[in-house]
Design a protein that fits this description.
Rossmann fold, alpha/beta
Amino acid sequence: MIRTLLAEDSPTARVLLTEVLQADPELSVVGVAKDGAQAVAMTKQLSPDIVVMDLHMPEMNGLDATKQIMVETPTPIIIVTASGDAREVEVSMHALRAGALTVMPKPVGPGSHEFHECARQFRTTVKAMSQVKVVRRWARSSPPPRAPAPSEAPAAPRVVAVGASTGGPAALYRIFSELPGNFPIPILVVQHIAQGFVDGFAAWLNTGTPLVIKVARHGEVIAPRTVYLACDDQHLGLLDRSTLAVSSAPPIGGFRPSASFLFESVGRLYGRGAVAVVLTGMGQDGVDGLRAVRQGGGRVIAQDEESSIVFGMPGAAIEAGLADFTVPLSAIAFRLRQIVGEKEPV
């Protein structure tokens, strides 16, 4: 039985969420907190397997409650929100940086034809996230010493493709904040995130980096110093070496957008000029596409287990023998700068 603590100030939403959760015999609601301060206290008292946390609550909001729980009683946390506007998403993303695992829209009410599917997806996510072993927040470490130069110079990189899922928003924020504004090649990103959140996600990432972060548009010409995010329920790839493809092709392994779709596209078109990065995330999305990167002579960076919130995606890439470098989150931006040939300042 998965013991769930619900933190929600709205009586109507509390009833709905409790009924949705307890419709699954594997889930039980062991406590209901009406504000963030209660959520912090009840997490200590009840030791739930997971906390489902609203953002906007009196006394203490969901962001501050998340920060305190992750410092005092690290517990898997899902943030739920009723709105996908940019401000709401920005606060949600800060909660992910503070240690929450994912953000989801609240299920629609029983009067909607989408209710049963939304409720099923909600319960599936709660059960999956309850299994994640969380720790107190990552400590920022110093960049590692520079690795020795390779004996044979590899091909010049032309594009970076990134795949991420659970834990990815905070990881991407850190990586992009540590890349220079003149990063010389485009970056394409597939991040599994709830529908309706990608525009706010892009706006939030833009607050922390000198790079330009934008949601990809079909037919757009890619440019250096720019990050392109896959949009809602569409694959991201390339039509040719300079033009974005946004595709409604069938999901791959249950995912659309899929990291495998992106990796296969850049591997096929760029060959030795492709650099793929696989970050923290649940499942194995990306592995099939990484084979195309490696077969074409491109390079693959995988986040290591210790710094990953969930080691599923990078772990699958490493186990398949597809990773050229396995590095902590703190070293990924450094490794990318090294690959594109950034010189040390004098």
